[in-house]
Amino acid sequence: MGSIPAMLPECLSTLYTYIRVLRNHRDQMVYTTGFVKRDGEFGYFAAVEAGLFLLFWDQIAAIRAFRAYHNQALSWPTNFRLGRRANLYRYFSQTLSSCYKSLEYQNGAGGAPRAIGEHLQLHPTALCLEVAQIHASWEDSLYAITAFPRADQKNWRVLVMIEQIMEDHKVLGSSSEADKRALVETIYRASQKTFQSPRILRLLFFALIEMGQYDEAELALKSYMEMAELNLKVKNAAANETLSYEQRVRLDVESQYEITTVMIAGSVLYGKELNKPTEALTCASNALDNVHKYLQSHESTSELLNSAYKYQGIAYGLLASSEHEPEKRSDFYAKAIESLAKSIQILPAAFDGHYLLALQLAEMRDIPKATMTAKQSLSINPSYIPSWHLLALLLSSQKDYERALNICAVGLKESEWDITQADGYSASGLDGEEYLSFCITQALLHDKVHGPEAALEPHEALFVLYSKVFAIEPEPTAESLYGVNSIQRRDQSELDVSTGSTIVGRLHAGSILSIRDVPKPSYTPSIASIGSTTSKDRRIPPSATSAQSTLIKSALSLPSVAQRPTTKSIMRIARANTVLVTLWLLSASIFRRLGRMEDALKAIEEAERVDSSNPDVWYQLGLLYAAQGDPETASVSFSKALAISPYHSACLARVGRSYLDAGSLDMAEYVLETTTKSHGWDCAEAWLYLGRVMEASDRLTRAKECLWYALDLENS
């Protein structure tokens, strides 16, 4: 664009002199030559005007000129002036994005920029559609003249385009599933015009995470890290940091800051979504090394260090919770506390760091410190549901149930999650899940304080809340929110790339009781095959759950079309199943303690219909038969639970107790020793029964140790 003024005489020193001479020249040509039908020339003049307006920082006028150019270009032949078009669309997209950001800043956050409507006759939704059209035209024009690069070439124009598309996606805040999928497909098409580009892999990684396709994101992450490591070995990392942004794009060189942000995001992916703590720890530790080695003077050093230490602490905590050896587990816990404490030292005003430290301390049963840290988190952000939830659990661990119940009431009122929306849908699914989990804890505390009879009252509301939290939009139309999919592409046969992407099926907002449409493995036979119950009607009586009995159909089912759902949607379905099973088993527990065994059995059967592979279903069934005085059938149920989850601590404790009651001390000791040395180290019941085994075998010192440890766990 900087070359446009060179086309005109140097004596023309002002913007409006440029424009006046340019338009007079255009009008004179029309008058003398009569080339009014030569639309290409009018597009040329519009392009020159746009460049002049940009040169003098008049973005509003430049956008009008760019639009005039684009309108003319729509009528041109497919292969007419593609290079110039691609270049103009690049500046058009950059100008729209810059104008939107500047107007949004002037009008403040929290609302659409009014100046857009005043100056450009546009609203944000229409702007998103226009940007999508410009992106499509830019991509078509550029790819039509771009060949696959040679070994010594970099298609930097493609990289600039993809960077701009990603930036526009962030600025405009497009959040529909179709838009996210379209973005991923755009990056995949760009990968076919580049060769082993780390920049393309980085952008693809972040786009896949946003879409929720975590398995593909992991592959992109691995490829990116291998390529980045190779580039660091070949090139001087310190020299690369001196390059400008445009130079790095043209050379396709990643900065240490960009590599570090990918490492931190990779730690989040592995730790939070994929449950791979070892890989999460590797990413976080590598990010810390990068920051200390290359980014000590970077403007974002504090934020990077805070994030890296935070996710390193989370990774150590995950390793500790899955570690069998007590010595290693203690070491991991200590390192987790150390990393989280460093994170807080760097950014003490970050509430999530205090919450994570409190959670880690709670897992280690350091209740006083955990309580103090949770309160610090709430003092920074009083609307954060997990902090209130953790504080209520910490108080309940001290048997202060009434105070914990009061904390639940206060925390739910402080929550910003809205459950009274007119359309019945949740604005934030994850916040809604936290809210529902908090309400379930409140119901359990209500049971402790007021007894099981009173605890039945809030159950209907819990099922209704479940239907709101896990309800998504109505049936999908597979269309973008801003109409991106409706944009006609000029050379679709050349540009479309099959990526295997699919549209995730949506859910109806109605029913909640069973999720039978979701395919799930059947590890065990039906509950109906255990015991003597042969009831044909598997429904809770209206007196128990009157509202739920009318909601029979599935709330969450896989899409009916032959399309692959995202990892995120599959995980959400699994969480929905788990929560629904929890609600039914909570009802079954209350019915069992009230002596309503038939109702308890029917509630367990409903939980089995949701997810028969959940070990808690069979554990609750075993408790039910044990309460009915049928230890043999209870033992069969416990065995089925352990077949699904061999380290189910509560179930192993019950099996150890059954051996103890039968006088088989050796078997009881083996089961309970194994449990307390592995995942059941914090199971007070297992330590209690182990102490009794030691007492029965006259090992009183060891029995005393076990019983004291059981008491400590029970008090925390």
Could you explain how this protein is built, in words?
Belongs to the YPP1 family. TPR repeats lie at residues 615-648. InterPro entries: Endocytosis_PI4K-reg_protein, TPR-like_helical_dom_sf, TPR_rpt. This is TPR-like protein. Helices cover 67% and strands 0% of the residues. By secondary structure, it is mainly α. Among the domains are: 1-145; 417-489 and 504-639, Alpha Horseshoe (Serine Threonine Protein Phosphatase 5, Tetratricopeptide repeat); 646-716, Serine Threonine Protein Phosphatase 5, Tetratricopeptide repeat. It is elongated and about 90 Å long. The N and C termini lie far apart (69 Å). Residues 1-56, 108-117, 421-427, 473-525 and 532-562 have low confidence and may be disordered.
